[in-house]
Amino acid sequence: MSALAAVLLAELSSGDHVLLAEELYGKTHQLFVSEGARWGLSADFVDPHSRDSLETSRQESTRMLVVETISNPMLRVADIAELASWCDSHGIVLVVDHTIASPTSFRPLEAGGSYVVESLTKFANGHSDVVLGMVCGGGDGESRVDAVIRTWGLVSSPFDCWLAERGAQTLDVRSERACGTALEIARRLEADRRVTHVRYPGLASHPDYSTAAKQFADRHGSLVACSLLGGRDAVDRFVGHVPFCPSLGESTTTVSHPLSTSHRTLGQEACRRLGIEPGTIRLSIGCEPLEEAWEMIERGLSSSG
Ligand SMILES: *Cc1c(COP(=O)(O)O)cnc(C)c1O
Predict the structure, then answer these.
(1) Whose CA is closest to 305, among 240, 239, 231, 255?
(2) Could you tell me which residues are beta bridge partners of residue 3?
(3) In contact, 256 and 244? CB cutoff 8 Å
(4) Atom 1 (ligand 1): residue with closest C-alpha?
(5) Predicted confidence (pLDDT) per residue in 145-183, tens digit
């Protein structure tokens, strides 16, 4: 979050307007909407998949668009090159939160993004032992972001940086394993009658499959979402078999229930509009062997019925 705060402080001034993708990490939403309002910023939500939505919401004072490469938990995929070219033609700074996508598969700066921010707390460090963020971009040379980080005291702990550098050394192999396993588990879930609405950007049934296929190499991330047929009660039984964790990107497979954790402040109605149901679970696939991860999920599914 301090990476995002640094970009906000470096790029925006009182009176500026910001466009936010409608399915955004809750704290990002809070940062730009509630906190931002205290600094004289205004913000509107847009559907980043619709040019109309972007055009309708753009104002003379629009300075920034904030999107996630892959959203959580419905795993919508934003077309970063498209958005970058639209932003470029209007002098808008494009900030890409790349936490959920694999940086080993796609680099948003190369597609024209102005800044990439990432929570290293998740996959990049990968061992759930740091809380740390990263910000890249801002043009050549020393950017305003460097000055902001030092003067606002957003500097990271050296020990956390050391841990994250060590974690990042294995990011490529962890990502290869976890993304491969996630694809196979998504396929198995799609064929399973105990679940519905399987969401994974590497499945042809995904609404943004063609964007994902164009944008990513063979890695579509390690999150998989689906709905358990038995609804909320089934979720309670499922989580007895797969470690429950509202965060993501651990080295082992975990499950989260967005409606009661990450998205609870949105309320049931807004969640329903996004496609988050009482029975929706979001798996974060780890680096165990495929069959080990599947065995755990299979036990959860068996008990959910
Ligand atoms: C977790 C998360 C963040 C915030 O990361 P912290 O390391 O907790 O500050 C921001 N964006 C996304 C998409 C996340 O999943």
Answers:
(1) 231
(2) none
(3) yes
(4) 119
(5) 999 999 999 999 999 999 999 999 999 999 999 999 999
Contact 16, 41 (CB under 8 A): yes
Phi-psi region of 174 (alpha: psi -120 to 50; beta: other; left: phi over 0): alpha
**Which ligand 1 atom sits nearest the alpha carbon of residue 2?**
9
Question: CB within 6 Å of ligand 1 — which residues?
Answer: 1, 25, 28, 68, 72, 97, 99-100, 119, 121-122, 131, 133
The residues facing 280 across adjacent strands are: 227
Residue of the nearest CA to atom 2 in ligand 1? Answer: 119
Report the side by side order of strands in the sheet with 133-137: 42-46, 17-21, 62-68, 93-97, 115-119, 133-137
pLDDT, tens digit (0-9, with 9 covering 90-100), for 36-53 = 999 999 999 999 999 999
C-beta separation of 121 from 130 below 8 A: yes
Q: Which two tokens stand for residue 91?
A: 């002098």
Strand partners, 255: 244, 283
Question: Strands 195-199 and 223-228, how do they pair?
Answer: antiparallel
What is the distance between the terminal CA atoms of the chain, rounded to a whole angstrom? 39
Q: What pTM was estimated for this model as a whole? A: 0.96
Other CB atoms within a 10 A radius of the CB of residue 162 amount to 11
Q: In this structure, what token pair is assigned to residue 86?
A: 């639209």
126-129 long-range CB contacts below 8 Å, 24 or more apart? 126/167, 126/170, 126/171, 126/174, 126/249, 126/250, 126/251, 127/163, 127/167, 127/250, 127/251, 128/247, 128/249, 128/250, 128/251, 129/163
Task: Record the tokens describing residue 98, joined without a space.
Answer: 């790349």
Query: 94 has which bridge partners?
Result: 65
Token digits of residue 110: 């190369």
